[in-house]
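explain this chain.
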Amino acid sequence: MTEPTDLRLNKGSAAVGLAAPARQLHHGILAAFADTGRPPGPQDLEDYCHDHGIDLEPALRELTGCDLLAVDDQGRIRAAYPFSPAPTCHAVTWPDGPTTYAMCAVDALGMSAMLDHPVVITSTEPDSDTTITIRVDHDHATWSPDTAVVLAGATDDACCPSADRTCGYINFFTNAQAARDWADAHPEITTTVLNQAQALASGITEFGALLRPASETRPT
């Protein structure tokens, strides 16, 4: 296991630099996930952009270019960090809301701050499938088991988007030793163990401001 891992926390800073049309499209996509638990499809994106006067292709290029969004060859969303359109081992729920899925453990931890309400994360430890539950209310969290940590890993392919380079390797573990054991068994992945405070802070840094108005996030 190699420490520390460069998490390349860039979602928050990337969002600050978005042009207005891309920012509005980004907000619309995240809101759709939060409302339904599902991504908008290609036609939904076209309709949304038509209704809001957005040129879809340049806005999508901007969002994918700064790794705030990943799409497949058919233009379907395959990642809208922190949300995953496909089920992952990180389910995130809240009262009266849909079941959503996070791309990784850090993404899940940032959802409460981004959505401005408490959430419950239900995840499983890789290989053992032991359930780990975290109740998050902005910058406060209760972890079960209380020894749980996050192992943050990444491949060496810096050209890949986060969906391919890191998301599958950032997971909850029941304790630090279990995380280290997994890392030792996967030497091809560069990893570091984050304690609870570090992991939660990383999630808030990445995603806490993504849905705020531009006036609240741009430097003055």
